[in-house]
Amino acid sequence: MAEHGEAAAARDRDAVRVAVAEAHRREWAFVLAATARVTRDLDAAEECVQDAYVAALDAWYRQGVPRNPAAWLTTAARNRALDGMRRERTLRSKLPLLVPEQAEDDFSGAGTCDYIPDDRLRLIFTCCHPALAREAQVALTLRLVCGLTTSEIAQAFLVGEPTMAARVTRAKKKISAARIAYRVPEPAELPDRLDAVLTVLHLVFTTGHTAPEGTGLVRADLVERAISLAEMLHKLMPDEREVSGLLALLLITDARRAARTDAAGNLLLLEQQDRSQWDQAKIVAGSELVVESLRAGWPGRFALQAAIAAVHGEAPSYSETDWPQLLVLYDRLRCAWPSPVVELNRAVVVAMVAGPSVALAEIEGLEQDSRLDGYQYLPATKADLLRRLGRHREARDSYLAALALTENEAERAFLARRVAEVSGQA
Question: Which is nearest to 202 in space by CA: 306, 295, 129?
Fold first, then answer.
């Protein structure tokens, strides 16, 4: 009986750990944003939220997992924050000679604003502080607000994990050293922070669209969070063309979600997908936003990416895709956003317009760009071009190189199948 009871207790604790982990994935941004409104200090808010998650492990085991985990965690974190602030206020009142007087905090109204409709969006704008370098703004926001791991952020920036960890640490230290307080920017300050905010939402989406690691191809929680925040941002700033462009890009790209894997979870490339499974409502909504984003003036990087997605989304089949039009759009995109990843994606289109040999020459040039070191899609793309050219032995080597760099299980399975295919033909 005792052993049975211990086994049941172990299962209960495992269930609680799973519930807490799921709450961390889904609710971290909500809880941190709500707590930061109280503390007006990101480090203090993060510490209180971490304490709340630790407390949940024990409390939920004793009391059961709450019906609304986010509300429980938010209350716990805010209570810790308020307790800490009250202790600090008491200390200031009792030791006036040792601690300089400061203005009293209004706990109830900290960081309140009516023009940004969501706590998470407020916090993203707040973290994208112009005192920080652009990459530091984005990396810190992805880590603190969006809950991405340092490894996931590093992959998004094409840098090593130690480099990204150091970058986030430096950003936190700068905030502390410069005494940058938690303050929601005024409406007039939003445009200067907009590009960083758009970058954050785009990286959250791309991290969810193809998860860097794990068994599933998609992290739906990140995809849906990015789209939801982009929709709120569009309502907040409807006249900003790049906001329309980003939302269009996310909607049209996500429209293909159901067709990206088969019933067994196997990855399907664009040319293999059943287009009847694409979400046409999202494609139509996104295409209308593309028109908004391309009106008058030179389009930005998100508008151009959205236009590229729309060409794919509106094509009746892979073979009927307007590849020359895509090449024109990629040429404009690399002017608006010089990036080796853009060049790599452009090479895929070059292969469809001018043939795989021409594209392979461009890929071999990109292999000299150190920014793509460790980027698995470079050898994967090269492998596909070599396969199409019948150079199966070389293709196998490139597929193996891509496989060694890939941690997502769905992508690994796809690459393993390709290795087996070309090995049989070599």
Answer: 306
Residue 181's pLDDT band (boundaries 50, 70, 90)?
A: low
Q: Can you spell out the DSSP letters for 145-166?
A: TS---HHHHHHHHTS-HHHHHH
Alpha helices in 178-263 (DSSP H): 190-209, 220-236, 241-254
Contact 140, 168 (CB under 8 A): yes
pLDDT at position 215, please?
85
Q: What's the CA gap between 118 and 33, in Å, rounded?
A: 9
According to DSSP, the β-strands at 407-408 and 213-214 are: parallel
Helix or strand (DSSP H, E) at 213: strand 213-214
Query: Sign of the CA dihedral 156, 161, 162, 167?
Result: positive
Name residue 178's amino acid.
A
What domains, with CATH codes, occur in the chain? 2-90 (1.10.1740.10), 352-426 (1.25.40)
Q: Is the dihedral of CA 367, 302, 165, 254 positive or negative?
A: negative
Q: Please compute Rg for the chain using Cα positions.
A: 24
* Tens-digit pLDDT profile for residues 333-386: 999 999 999 999 999 999 999 999 999 999 999 999 999 999 999 999 999 999
